[in-house]
Amino acid sequence: xxxxxxxxxxxxxxxxxxxxxxxxxxxxxxxxxxxxxxxxxxxxxxxxxxxxxxxxxxxxxxxxxxxxxxxxxxxxxxxxxxxxxxxxxxxxxxxxxxxxxxxxxxxxxxxxxxxxxxxxxxxxxxxxxxxxxxxxxxxxxxxxxxxxxxxxxxxxxxxxxxxxxxxxxxxxxxxxxxxxxxxxxxxxxxxxxxxxxxxxxxxxxxxxxxxxxxxxxxxxxxxxxxxxxxxxxxxxxxxxxxxxxxxxxxxxxxxxxxx
Length: 259
What we know:
Elements: H1 5-32, E1 36-45, E2 51-56, E3 61-67, E4 76-83, E5 98-108, E6 116-122, E7 128-134, E8 139-142, E9 149-152, E10 161-169, E11 183-188, E12 191-192, E13 196-197, E14 210-217, E15 227-238, H2 241-258
Antiparallel strand pairs: 1-4, 2-3, 3-15, 4-14, 5-10, 5-15, 6-7, 6-14, 7-8, 8-9, 10-11, 11-12, 11-13
Helix pairs in contact: 1-2
């Protein structure tokens, strides 16, 4: 049987597409399996007598209303980590791209001392990474392996809803020394940092990290009416666009070839 060059090329495209789907499939399935959060109230509990009202109706809303702090020390912190089973934190991998968006809101009784809320990734061996809004109006990403970026020290209007989005694109091959780099892009109300290269030896997210949102409150001991309300609504968690596009393209090619 004679096989034309065109048929050979078509077969190669299909094989490559299937390969892409096989490689990317587990990562896509993992990210798309995120369906809940695991809430840890009072991770820091320096004001143990405070009145805390948490809400978890993920993906609709995750929030903490805290008041009547009383006597204490530094701060209280509350965390909600992404999960695929409503019981344990989802384990993020270096090779797993993601695109995560949420609407965030912060209101307080006293802007100082600083209260903050936003995304938090715990890399364990590499420190904590943050993309946050604060009661003193800062919007910035920093810490751990995260590339640093600031949208400005006066960018957030306290008491307003804003959109926070993070797009993680892993390196496109397994060689960490070929000059490529994983990137993180931060978006604040649609304004973009652009893709920023990671500078850590892992070249991106550290395997085994957990990721979610948090609220940290340093109360004003001189204001008994001080409070904090950290609210997140409309969570959207999907694979990063480039990875998703490759799989969609591969699936389309396979379907087209089978016709």
